[in-house]
Amino acid sequence: MAPVFPLHRLPHVAFDKEQRIKAAISRERVSFTENLREYCLNTTIHGLKYIGTVSLTLCERAYFFLTFLVVTACSIYFISNVYIKWQSSPIIIGLNPIATHIRNIPFPAVTICNMNQLRREAAERIEQNTLEQTVLQSICSIDGDFNDTQYEGKWSAVKRMLLSATQPCSALLKACRYAKQPERCSEIFQSIFTDEGLCCTFNTLDTVYMFRNATAPSIFPTEVGSSSGRFRPILWTPENGYAEEPSNASYPRFIAGPGVAMGLAMVLDANASDYFCSSTSSVGFKIIFHSPSETPKITDYAQYIPVGTENRIIITPKINDAADQIRKVAQAQRQCVFASEANLSYYSVYSRNNCELECEAKLILENCGCVLYYLPKLYEDTKICSRANARCYEQIRSSIAFTANTSISCSCLPGCFEISYVPDLTTAELQVGRFGIRETLLDNVKDEVYAKENLALVYIFVKDTYYRSFTKGELVGFTDFLSNVGGLLGLFLGFSIISLIEVIYFVTLRPYCAKRKQQCINRKEQNVEANHLTAARNELLWFGSKPSTTTAIQFLGRPTDADRYDANDYHLHAGRNAMVKEFAAKLKHLVHSRLQQANGWVRNTFRSRRTQLGFGQERTGTSYPFYD
Questions:
Q1: Contact 289, 314 (CB under 8 A)
Q2: What are phi and psi of 593, to 5 degrees?
Q3: What's the CA gap between 144 and 102, in Å, rounded?
Q4: Burial class (CB in 10 A: 0-12, 13-18, 19+), 259
Q5: Closest to 423 (Cα-Cα) out of 260, 309, 307, 288
Q6: Rounded mean pLDDT of 256-269?
Q7: I need a surface site. Which of 103, 340, 359, 398 has the fewest CB within 10 A?
């Protein structure tokens, strides 16, 4: 049996497999300290390059590090102040540099009410303990014995009572003129239900454009009348203006021009002898100016027009609009509502007044089970409140009006686009029949006493051609905020967008690219080392041929299958070229020494056998040619 010589691995060549893997991974991974130092040396932020400079002493680097922290804290403090200002007061209100021509402004909606809420002639015909008496008490706010058994609270009954017992617009308005053109009052005025009863309104939106639901009970008891054929309704909203070009044959009408001649003139008749009940202590009229898309509140905000007077009312439009940039600002901060954000159920056009009327109607309906006749009603069968419900709905109305009350309130913000009209009223005593006058509206008035006790002449007009609006805009927009932050960062740190890109690069892209680059280098080195090792192993095969499969002698220079796997594993994790050359030289020396040992073993074996056979002594005649 052939001898097997032990193979002693060299200590500096036989690396542990796990250690070789860790060494390869450590070469592929860029250390955090190295990456941070390179960032400090190459960044555009001021001061960091001194922290990463190794040539500086520790004290110098600590000095710049502390300075950098102090400057960073100062920049954060000032940036926080800018951010607080941006969030707390983002809106500023200023005059629009571009004035608005009066042709783009609608003439104000004018609503006029007689202070007499019920005609005496109609009230005296009502019998006691009837449904009509209950409705009369509700309209005139008269306390007394209520016949609740007969009162069903139907809107149809209340509407019929109001139309039959109050002064119609044809009797209230004696003569009308607009923009120098005489008009029939019944064609330009429309009846409307208000908190003062049945009133007359001019230049308001058509019901098609004012209300969402055409089948809901309307505050307009009748259509404009014959004006539906002469005048064509068009849509107007405070935010978008006229939907189409207005004309003299459309309404709402635009302001025709400045001056008293281009405005609205009318003669009003109070018919003082027919007064039955009133919300005031005088005889005359209540007048209010509002947006064409709003329902007026006469009781709280109207002005008085006494009888026997000539009145000139100069209207100043007050226009509020908003820049489109503030749409992204929260409602609580900009304090206004855009049309697209409105959530009204009854009105189509949002305004604070319309929102408050809807809110008041909902609160009274929820708490009292009924609605006042002039408030929005979504359904025809909604119960109308009587004086029996007065205590309930008066308490609700008082709670809404009391601003300190938070339990029952209507949180209605103004519209971002709104228009209001500020009146300036001057009054003079009306004289009829004493001398010649130019006004043609009083041509049919001959009785001076009746004129002083019942009539009033009213002129409504504007005096300017252009008006400036109050515009809500951004006090500190995102662009301004970004500029302020960039200026502070540049002042304190020299920070810019490029600096931010550098941070992103050194955190993400650079470690990835460095790892890929090192892996490529490692693969090239491994291929070179494998080629050198293969060449060196081929050089070791010069001392003999390959043994057959039956040969039992195993020499160190001819590896077995297990040694081949070790060699392949070594090929994958070997060191540099110098280590391969050293290994080849040592391996050659080891094989040479093992061959010398084998040669000495063979010689000793033959010498021992010759001695046993008697070689070296005198032969006895037996011959051994093989040993010879």
A1: no
A2: -65, -35
A3: 51
A4: exposed
A5: 288
A6: 94
A7: 340
Residue 234 CA to residue 232 CA, distance in Å, equals 7
Cα 181 from Cα 452, distance rounded (Å): 26
Tokens of 398: 């008082």
Q: What is the pLDDT of residues 495-534, one digit of tens each?
A: 888 888 888 888 888 778 878 888 888 888 888 888 877 8
Instruction: Express each pLDDT in 70-92 by its tens digit.
Output: 988 999 999 998 888 887 778 88
| Contact by Cβ (8 Å): 21, 573 | yes
* Burial of 606 (C-beta count, 10 Å sphere; 0-12/13-18/19+): exposed
The larger pLDDT score, comparing residue 616 to residue 266, is at 266
| Nearest-angstrom CA–CA distance, 528 and 568 | 14
> Where do we find the tokens 């036989």?
14
The lowest-confidence range among 20-34, 109-123, 312-326 is: 20-34
Question: H-type helices in 402-549, by residue range?
Answer: 448-454, 478-492, 497-504, 510-539
User: Is the pLDDT reported for residue 612 higher than 80?
Assistant: no
Please count the CA atoms within 13 angstroms of the CA of 532 that sit on its side-chain side. 20
Neighbours of 513 (CB within 10 A): 12
Q: Does 624 have pLDDT greater than 70?
A: no
Confidence of residue 350 (pLDDT cuts 50, 70, 90): very high
* Residue 222 Cα to chain centre, angstroms: 43
Given a contact cutoff of 8 angstroms between Cβ atoms, the answer to whether 529 and 571 are in contact is: yes
For residue 151, the model assigns a pLDDT of: 60
Is the separation of the CB atoms in 375 and 298 below 8 Å? no
Distance CA 204, CA 347 (A): 13
Tokens of 83: 């951010």
Q: Which residues pair with 194 in a beta bridge?
A: 197
Cα 566 to Cα 576: distance, rounded to the nearest angstrom: 17
Tell me the backbone φ, ψ of residue 335, rounded to 5 degrees.
60, 45
Q: Report the C-alpha gap between 261 and 527 in whole angstroms.
A: 103
d(CA 224, CA 220): 9
Give me the half-sphere count of Cα atoms (radius 13 Å) on the Cβ side of residue 381. Answer: 0
